Amino acid sequence: MKTEVRAANPRPASAQGGDGSRLDAAAWAYFEGRLVPFGEANLSIATHALNYGTAIFEGIRAYRQDDGSLAILFALEHYARLLRNGRLLRAEVPESAEELVELTRELLRRNGEMADMYIRPLLYKAARSVRLQLSDLEDRVAIYAFPLGDYVPTDGLRVAVSAWQRVNDNAVPARAKITGSYVNACLAVEDAHAAGYNEALLLTADGHVAEASSANLFLVRDGVLSTPTLTDDVLPGITRQAVITLALDAGYLVEERKIDRTELYLADELFLTGTGAQLAPVASIDGRPIGDGPAFPISADLAQRYFAAVRGRDPAYAGWLTPV
Fold first, then answer.
1. Is 177 a catalytic residue?
2. What pLDDT, on a 0 to 100 scale, did the predictor assign at position 12?
3. How far is residue 313's CA from residue 258's CA, in Å, rounded to a whole number?
4. Has residue 322 got a pLDDT over 70?
5. 118-144 residues labelled b (16+ CB within 10 A) or e (exposed)
6. 196 has pLDDT over 70
7. Which element (helix H / strand E) includes 158?
8. How large is the average pLDDT for residues 158-185?
9. Which one, of 321, 274, 280, lies nearest residue 302 by Cα?
10. Which of 40, 55, 61, 293 has a CA positioned 20 to 30 A from the CA of residue 80?
11. Can you tell me the distance from the alpha carbon of 41 to that of 32, in angstroms, rounded to the nearest whole number?
């Protein structure tokens, strides 16, 4: 039996602000072990990470709560993933995940922003080197933040299946947010935008559905939610897992399995999840309308539950939030 969650405030639930295409970074950043004015957080053009994409990044949101305060969503989970994935690049830094959470809280307090914020941590090879190596290079963490609203529209996306394949995990690890690998996503989404679509969906080398350029995918058919398995070159999204939790708590059936391209065209509903995407329904794919649209009841229900949680309106998920 699904329980009802109602928004307690008529204010729009999704993030408010720009889409990140022209970001206005906050005044302070964490750089080389200390908080500095953003303009002083500068790297050499010889930095290994700039030349070879040898960095791991995270995207973290902080949402304004209904009482006017700010809270970071899944702060510890993101930093734990950052440091864990850093092992793929043989990266080690002195900061712990817990220390990075506290540094981020202090960074946001010092910036004084009370808008919905996006936080970008980078774990990068900071050495000035053009050697093709990962070991014996200095590693650093940098963090900056800026106000961000909806990264993609949350009122119905027009999506295209890309001709570019999702990067294979045996080529560049798909389960880590390695900066260099996101050229793959840029190529796909650039072609989609040029053709008039909002977003691109990438397939694996064997033709199964992987994910969007920067978001995981869920398919709804006959009331059952399906999402690609993590072995299909999919990022183990923190928002993906949060939505699985919300769906199971609400009484929906959820399965992780291989999804064929043609299933997308026959779906009752499709939606994307991610820190940037939040929970965004898909209105059409390759020009084919999804389901009976424009009302997508399960997507709408889960979006309501998700935004109730991130805005601090549902005490059942208070543990997801770290007050600033």
1. yes
2. 46
3. 34
4. yes
5. bbbbbbbbbbebeeeeeeebebbbbbb
6. yes
7. strand 157-165
8. 94
9. 280
10. 40
11. 8
